UniProtKB/TrEMBL annotation:
It comes from Microbacterium lacus. It comes from the Bacteria. Gene3D superfamilies: Fumarase/aspartase (C-terminal domain), Fumarase/aspartase (Central domain), Fumarase/aspartase (N-terminal domain). NCBIfam families: PRK09285.1. Residues 14-308 form the Fumarate lyase N-terminal domain. This is Adenylosuccinate lyase. One of its GO terms (molecular function) is lyase activity. Keywords: Lyase, Purine biosynthesis. The gene is purB. Catalyzes two reactions in de novo purine nucleotide biosynthesis. Catalyzes the breakdown of 5-aminoimidazole- (N-succinylocarboxamide) ribotide (SAICAR or 2-[5-amino-1-(5-phospho-beta-D-ribosyl)imidazole-4-carboxamido]succinate) to 5-aminoimidazole-4-carboxamide ribotide (AICAR or 5-amino-1-(5-phospho-beta-D-ribosyl)imidazole-4-carboxamide) and fumarate, and of adenylosuccinate (ADS or N(6)-(1,2-dicarboxyethyl)-AMP) to adenosine monophosphate (AMP) and fumarate.
Amino acid sequence: MTSLPPQPLSPLDGRYAGAVGALSEYLSEAGLNQARVEVEVEWLIALTDRSLFGTSPLTDAEKESLRGLYRDFGQAEIDWLAEKEAVTRHDVKAVEYLVRDRLSALGLDGIAELTHFACTSEDINSASYALTVQRAVTRVWLPKLQGVIDTLRRLAEQHRDAAMLSRTHGQPATPTTMGKELAVFVWRLERVAAQVAASEYLAKFSGATGTWSAHLSAEPDVDWPELSRLFIEGLGIGFNVLTTQIESHDWQVELYDRVRHAGGILHNLATDVWTYISLGYFSQIPVAGATGSSTMPHKINPIRFENAEANLEISGGLLATLAATLVTSRLQRDLTDSTTQRNIGVGLGHSLLALDNLQRGLGEIALAQPVLDADLDGNWEVLAEAIQTVVRAEIAAGRSQITDPYALLKDLTRGRRVGGPELAEFVRGLDIGDAAKERLLALTPATYTGLASALVDEVAAR
């Protein structure tokens, strides 16, 4: 048997590349190296801007040509780094050599020794990861999450008055509306999305053990912590002043826990919509040419929601591992974080894939109101809650001599179906005021939805 040509091992790079490819611009090895070049170049510019060690500020043209090293980063640089790393066995050192090589080509050999000046690898890496993760989350993941939220909001508004039977513990319960139930997910997701949007992305830039020792040895009169802070904040990320050799990664732990939290809510959404489809509340809109089953031609499987479930579970498990691993490092430094962080894109990738499945799945369902109506009409016993509550109010008001309204309704309805006529006859025989009796007689399962419709306004305007 002949061997296959090289194939992607992860489905994110193969079958699902079209859905998650936008993340690779930031969270691939190439994306990380591009960010590393960016940090190295901007550090060179920061040092020369302050005329340190006898240098002069670069001209605007020189700065632009230097910034072209990361702005135009492409296949040539990817290949160059791969060859160099095969020799150095050190990825950040290979990036330093790349920048030095390109400085020579640009005629800027005079500042070559300031490349990677006083930096430990984590100075470059922490800034690069902060930049790439920030860009991946804010430019790719959050907009996709917002797209799902917006789709849910539209469905909530569309179905705000669509009365349906609730199911608490899987059993018929006080009716609600489909719109209100979907609005609950909008409310939950918007809260977590706001937390993710407010996330910090931190970097350190303080040398081998976080003490600026080499910096001070080279130039004791510079306020290196302040210079480092201005540099890092100038990149658009936050500065962590107090660290060991590594940035402590607490911001990553917080972020991945929030993304995982969002994934838990999305998983709940997927299982609920799957259940509504199973109950017949939603019908699935056929996609031309698609096959639901290899043997049963009639089937339209809810695969979007099932795929979302699976990918959210994979993402959640990996993000939990990232958070658990990155929160600790032995003494001043160990390298467990190095290989761990290379899987950030995998964790976010499966989450992004789930979001894509959910958004597409929500666009391929239609509410089957007749099914909802029939379900409501077959469960008049859910009005027992309303009846016993009204009776209790009548007792409190002195208009009824009933002694145990809950037990009275329990005897009538628990474990059995009660039809509308039977319930109406029961209400007419109750010892309550006429006004209360009329309100109950006018009530149906379809109208016993309280403020469900109005509650959709809580998310409609946001």
